[in-house]
């Protein structure tokens, strides 16, 4: 099996280059200009969308993944451990651990 030294050696790259040449040959100047304008318009629309999202109330928000039951149990147990340690430091009785129902 031959190793690839540069990406131009890859068959898929060579086929893609051939396809690109054929596409450019088949396009006349008018069609190419229209496609170019279409790409430019799409870029402007995407930029405007991004800008409007930045200034809206949704700017920078990401949806959080819901935690699994195991993650919720682990977080509750860790909180209980932390609370117990704090109670011991204050000389108090540690709180009872409540089972997680889920």
The portion of residues forming beta strands comes to under 5%
Mean pLDDT: 80
The gyration radius over C-alpha positions equals 30 Å
Give the helix proportion (percent range). 55-70%
Structure summary, number of beta strands: 0
N-to-C SSE string, H for helix and E for strand: HHH
Distance between the termini: 54 Å
Which shape, going by the Cα principal axes? Answer: elongated
Largest sheet: none
Structural class: mainly alpha
> Runs with pLDDT <50, length 5+?
none
Please indicate the count of domains: 2
Number of helices: 3
Describe the protein's architecture and organization.
With 102 residues, this protein is an all-alpha fold. The chain has two domains: 49 residues; 30 residues. The longest helix has 27 residues. The chain starts with 10 loop residues before the first helix and ends in a 13-residue tail after the last helix. The mean pLDDT is 80.
Keywords:
2 domains; 3 helices; about 100 residues; mainly alpha; elongated; about 65% helix
Structure at a glance:
The protein has 102 residues and is an all-alpha fold. The protein is built from 3 helices and no strands.
How would the blueprint of this fold be written?
Blueprint: H1 11-26, H2 29-55, H3 69-89
